[in-house]
Amino acid sequence: MSDKIKIGVLGASGYTGADLVRLAARHPNIDITVLTANSHAGKPMKAVFKHFSHITLPDLVTVEDADWDAVDAVFCGLPHGTTQAISRDILEKHPKVKIIDMSADFRLRDPVTYKEWYGLDHSALEIQKEAVYGLTERYRHQIANARLIACPGCYPTAVLLALLPLTTHGLIDPDEIIIDAKSGVSGAGRSPKENTLFCEAGEGVSPYSVGKHRHMPEIEQELGVSIGRSDLRINFTPHLIPMSRGELCTSYVRLSAGHSADDLRQALVKAYADEPFVTVADPGVLPQTQMVRGSNYVVVNVIPDRIPGRAIVISTLDNLVKGSAGQAIQNFNVAFGLEETTGIEQLPLFP
């Protein structure tokens, strides 16, 4: 065990924290040393999640009782607004520790934008400036040397992997992007909420946060970086689908002059030719959540629209894996110089 990298998980009793533990438990280079969950402190992990009954894990402790001297990396799965002070404290006292944050606290580079969308002043600006946006396929080289990695949200991961190669090369009009997004109920977290009760969410599809979802500025930030603009605005509407996990984003785009839907598809093929986790589906094959469930894979494709000059870009991922915990481990692998695919090569689960 001594040659393994010791990790701690903040918020291990949430869905993203639990999926991080699930993946890390079979990672050949990871030793899970600390698990925190204030509301469940003192309990064994298997008492909170029955699917961990087969393995031995540390008992859950409070954040205050966690021994950060014992870890090399910390994965943060806490709600927004709760990670900043803890991350700052860990990095101040343990500067060699790497933090891979799965919350929204360090994703937005502009603290004014963060306050606008999350209603809080950013309390750790001194470390915010060193945070690297953790979209692995885009920022791999920066992630390799980062102490603080801000993993993207699930919706931004699906959308940005589908659209960044297109905006970067000027193939679509960035001001004409309409995104219709759908996610499983686990995206809302484990805390009880009326709209995620079985009788409320089952047998129906519900839009939510229309025109004000907090992933919008994250998508705008990164697409804006790709075209050198800070004023970009996109149309984004998420929907809740009655399934546990999975996410599908359909982006409607206007082609730039002289380009076709096939040009867009070829740009994606070229961009992801050497990427282990992004698959461009064969021509005419429509991405489906069944293609990625339980895996770190993303499937994308482009379909011509019947409206001249437009195309439809579809992307799908598992919101808890590539949309959160899997991407976090992918970034961990890069940050510690490991083979990027280590521990996250599971094929999709079907049926």
Could you explain the architecture of this structure?
InterPro entries: AGPR, AGPR_AS, AGPR_dimerisation_dom, AGPR_type-1, NAD(P)-bd_dom_sf, Semialdehyde_DH_NAD-bd. GO terms for molecular function: N-acetyl-gamma-glutamyl-phosphate reductase activity; NAD binding; NADP+ binding. It catalyses: N-acetyl-L-glutamate 5-semialdehyde + phosphate + NADP(+) = N-acetyl-L-glutamyl 5-phosphate + NADPH + H(+). Pathway: Amino-acid biosynthesis; L-arginine biosynthesis; N(2)-acetyl-L-ornithine from L-glutamate: step 3/4. The protein has 351 residues and is of the alpha/beta class. It has 2 domains: 5-130, Rossmann fold (3-Layer(aba) Sandwich), CATH 3.40.50; 155-318, Dihydrodipicolinate Reductase, domain 2 (2-Layer Sandwich). The chain has 11 helices and 14 strands. The protein has helices spanning 15-24, 45-48, 84-93, 111-118, 125-128, 136-143, 154-168, 198-201, 216-227, 261-271, 321-335; strands at 5-10, 30-36, 60-61, 73-76, 98-101, 132-133, 148-150, 178-183, 206-207, 235-240, 247-254, 278-280, 298-304, 310-317. It has a 7-stranded parallel β-sheet with strand order 3-2-1-4-5-7-6, with helices on one face. Helix 1 (15-24) packs across helix 11 (321-335) and helix 6 runs parallel beside helix 11 (321-335). The longest helix has 15 residues, at 154-168. The protein is globular. The mean pLDDT is 95.
User: Under the CATH scheme, which class of the largest domain?
Assistant: Alpha Beta
Helix and strand sequence: EHEHEEHEHHEHEHEHEHEEHEEEH
CATH architecture classification name of the largest domain: 2-Layer Sandwich
The helix count comes to 11
Enter the CATH topology name of the largest domain: Dihydrodipicolinate Reductase, domain 2
Total beta-strand segments:
14
Q: What strand line-up does the widest sheet have?
A: 3-2-1-4-5-7-6
CATH H level, superfamily name of the largest domain: Dihydrodipicolinate Reductase, domain 2
Strand content: 15-25%
Q: Stretches where pLDDT falls below 50 for ≥5 residues?
A: none
Main sheet specs: 7 strands, parallel
**SS content category:** alpha/beta
What share of residues is helical?
Answer: 25-40%
Mean pLDDT comes to 95
Radius of gyration, in Å, reads 20 Å
Shape: globular
